[in-house]
Amino acid sequence: MQLRADLGQAITDDAFVLHFQPIVDLATGHTRGLEALVRWQHPARGLVPPLEFIEIAEESGLIVPLGDWVLRHAVDAAAKFRAAVPEQAPYMSVNVSVRQFRSAGFVSRVFAELARAGLPAELLTIEITESLLLGDDEQIHAGLQTLRAAGVKVSIDDFGTGYSSLSYLHRVDVDTLKLDKSFVDTIATSPQQYDLVRGIIQLAATLQLDVVAEGIETDQHRELLIDGGCAYGQGYLFARPLPEDAVLGYMAGSE
Ligand code: G
Ligand code: G
Ligand code: MN
Ligand code: NA
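# guanosine-5'-monophosphate complex -> structure
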C-alpha cells in the first residue's frame, strides 16, 4: 500500500511534526502537562492525523523508529519549554505503543534521551494502553518498574475502553489513569455513567493514582468532573493540540 511505502521514506525524511495538547488543572485552568501528538507532513496529502498511520506503523514495525523520533522531539520540546518557564515547567506525556515498549533497548533509549536533553525524568510521562498490562509479562513489569524507579511517570491511556477490570489496578506499575473521552461524553446525559465515573475516580484516589479526564468539551463536563473529584483534564474546552510555537502563549494566557 502506498501510505505504508511512503511512511518508511517519511521517517528517513524527518517528515513529522508534533503538536501538544495542554493537560490542565481543572480547578484553575493552569497547564500542568502537554500530550505530544504526532502528525505526518505528507507531500501530497498534507497533514495526516495519527489515526491514519499509527496502525500501519505498528503492523510494519516502523513504529519503533517513528516512536524514537517522537520521543526525541518530545523530550527536546519539553527541555525548551522548561528553559522558557522554569517555574511552571509542564511535564511531557508521550504515547508509546506496545510494540515500541517491547522493542529491544526501549527503556535504555528513554534514559539516553533524557540525559541528552538534560530533562529531569519527573518531567516525562509515558502513556501506555491497558493491553500492555495484560498477561503479567515479566519483561514489561520490569521495564515499567525501572522507568518509575528513575522518576519517569506512567499513565494508562484510554482507560475504560479496553479490558479493564478494575481489580487489576492495585497491582500495576502506574501513576495516572487517563479516563477515556467516551466516559466524559456521557456524564452530562446519563446519571448512571456519571456515578460510574465518580466511582472510578474514587477508586483511583484510594490507589493513589491521578486521573486525567480526556475529551472535555463543555463547562458542564468540567464542573461534573471537578465535583466528582477529578483534578486534571484535557480537551477542546481548554485547547486543541497546538503547534509548538503556540504553547507558551497558551500557557501564559491561562495563568
Ligand atoms: O489528535 P489525535 O488525532 O492526535 O491522536 C489520535 C491517536 O493517535 C491517539 O490515540 C493517540 O494516542 C495516537 N497517537 C498520537 N501520537 C502518537 C505517537 O506519537 N505514538 C503513538 N503510539 N500513538 C500516537
Ligand atoms: O487516544 P489518545 O488519548 O492518545 O488521543 C487523544 C486524541 O483525542 C487526539 O486525537 C486528540 O486530538 C483528541 N482530543 C483531545 N481532546 C478532544 C476533545 O475535546 N474532543 C475531541 N473530539 N477529541 C479530542
Ligand atoms: Mn494519549
Ligand atoms: Na484516549
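# post-check
The CA atoms of residues 31 and 251 lie 6 Å apart.
Residues 21, 37, 95, 157-158, 214-217, 234-236, 241 surround guanosine-5'-monophosphate (ligand 2) (CB under 6 Å).
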